Amino acid sequence: MKIEARLVNMHYDFIQKGTKLEFFCYGNETPNLEKYLGKKVNLELKGDKRSVGANGYLWVLLGELQEKLKIPKEELYRHYISDCGSYEVLPIKDEAVSRFIESWSLNGLGWLCDTTKSKFKGYTNVLAYYGTSTYSKEEMTVLLEQVVQDCQEQGIPTKRKEEIESLLEELN
Fold it and tell me: What is the pLDDT of residues 6-54, one digit of tens each?
């Protein structure tokens, strides 16, 4: 069965030790999916070429910055995620913080955590950053615009604004 869908949410399930995915399915295929509830299935996910293009262009620019600044692009990526990325503030029991951070980071390179003091005794606030694979058009726009601005400040040529907007268009 082939279904057109959009990934709208995902989170790590600590009890089942896996990632739960939530999709919005287009069309009238939903009733046909009920027979799969609770069953193991194989999924093949293919992103829209423009969506992949926005993320791909981000990595091209990070590569250019890497050459110019002599900073690994993975480190730059993490910097931009923590600087202008989306995150949740989660109060976590002090003894569970390191395990949570370790598990959260298994989602991917951009899945970072920072910690701050909580107002609740015995808890630490964990700022859990999402990787760009979950970003909306608006979130990706903020991130990409910052990288483009930094590239331009370093004298690195970038695409025109209209071309970048075209790359971002399908991220809704």
Answer: 676 777 778 888 888 877 676 665 667 778 888 888 887 765 543 457 8
Could you give the C-alpha distances from 39 to 32, 42, 100, 163, in angstroms and in order? 14, 10, 28, 43
Of 121, 73, 56, the closest CA to residue 93 belongs to 121
CA 55, distance to chain mean position in Å, is 10
Report yes or no on 34 lying in a domain.
yes
| Structural element, H or E, at residue 78 | helix 73-84
Q: Give residue-wise pLDDT tens across range 86-104.
A: 899 999 999 999 999 999 9
Full-prediction pTM beyond 0.85? no
Task: Report in angstroms the alpha-carbon separations of 155 from 4, 62, 86, 132, 158.
Answer: 41, 14, 28, 25, 9
- The predicted structure's pLDDT at residue 103: 95
| Residue 99 forms part of a structural domain | no
Q: Angle formed by the axes of helices 49-69 and 137-153, to 10°?
A: 30
d(CA 88, CA 130) in angstroms, rounded, equals 8
Q: Which domain holds residue 22?
A: 1-46
| Alpha helices (H) in 106-172, listed in sequence order | 137-153, 161-168
Which two tokens mark 153? 């400040």
Question: Is there a domain that residue 139 lies in?
Answer: no
